[in-house]
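From the shared-data thread, chain only:
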Amino acid sequence: MRQTPFIDKNFNIWPFPIRIGINDISHLKYQFKKTRVMHRRKYGKKTLLDLDYFKNRIGNPVPLSRIFLGKKYSGKDPLIRKASLSFSIKCLFIDFVIGFGIPQIREFIIRPDIFFLLKKLKYVIQRIFLSFRLLLKVKFYVFYTVNNFEKNKSAILRFLEEENAL
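Structure, as tokens:
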């Protein structure tokens, strides 16, 4: 499950500000009362779950202090390294300003209509400005992930524990 958190103007990060989406709900133990199915051209069906079930189970917003830029890695173990400024800018522009990493942006918001795109220019300018603020305020890391969830989870938890111990 991949989710996109919401970052507000004060750089607080909000977990799951909208419905949680899952590609396959057949393995879930809980039967959700309210769901919405979204049919995506490239990625197939995604079921959006109602947040009422998660009320008081999802954490509160927290100040954003680091951003991990995920990158697939063919090595044996995951790695976490400080991201270069150029790589951070590239990722922010592609994923944050344009929204290329978010399928909903590509499929439902970006349209081949020049007038529609001109209306959205305001949001692009705002995102560029916020990107520069993020670069000044937040630490960026590249998280080289392997094809093993447990190893990736252990690596990120170990990194965060070591960094907080300093």
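The chain has a mean pLDDT of 80.
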